[in-house]
Description:
alpha/beta, 22% strand, single chain
Amino acid sequence: MTNDTTLFLGQWMRSPGTVGAVAPSSRRLAETVAAPVPRRGDPVIVELGPGTGAFTAEIQRRLDGRGHHMAVEINPKLAEFLSARHPKVEVVVDDAARLPHLLQERGLVKADAIVSGLPWAAFSDDVQTRLLDAVCSIMGANTAFTTFAYSFAKHLPPARRFRQRLLDTFEEVVVGRTVWGNLPPAFVYHVRRPREHAGNPSREVPE
């Protein structure tokens, strides 16, 4: 196994509820998740739960030295590994629920793109609410938010609840095609435009 795979597996064994996967995501999945990162200008990119940096590397490749890339990782060991591998990324050891404060501390208001590697289906409703509220608070009219889920679990109750939560929270939720080159296969949610008011009536969850 590679160094990052070994570290990732070790941290998953210590804390499966926060790491959420037993191996890093594939390059193919990273390309899909990072697709909304602007190719021009100096965008603000916020990455949540970067782990050992599968998505980080693709974001950095797309930025090519531009913009501000902040990666929020709650696991100190993974954050240390990520900082050493990607010195141009600002790695912050903190809770992603503090996103608005983290941006304010850096003189930033909104993100241009938010890329998430968090294990949403493993979180409780309260944790999902706190995290999605934080994400919404740093999204502008054109901000893109992407995250992923594993295909084998899409019909299980936790995954269906999270998909419904996305539909209730955002005006635009697009489900991407399955990325078969990932282990296990996964798909990406492409999300934009937080709803203005809470408590919108639920919509049917697409199969």
